[in-house]
Sequence to fold (77 residues):
Amino acid sequence: MATRGRSQTPDRVTQAGQACDELREALKAAGVVLPSLGLDPVSCTGSAPLGLIDLGRCNITTARALAAALRPRGTAR
Fold:
């Protein structure tokens, strides 16, 4: 019997948490750590939560490492 108002699939906040973990692991594999990466708590509340991921703030070195990781291979700046 299905619970009223609840889907059998994960809700947005759960999905956002999973996506955040996936992003953290992918960034780690690329040598990038965003120390403030996490779920935006305000977007995870209310009757229709959005489950947004907050990338947070980072220093210059981390920003440059992220930019380098996102550039196509062989493209230098």
Remarks:
- Residues 32 and 65 are 6 Å apart (CA to CA).
- The longest helix spans residues 12-29.
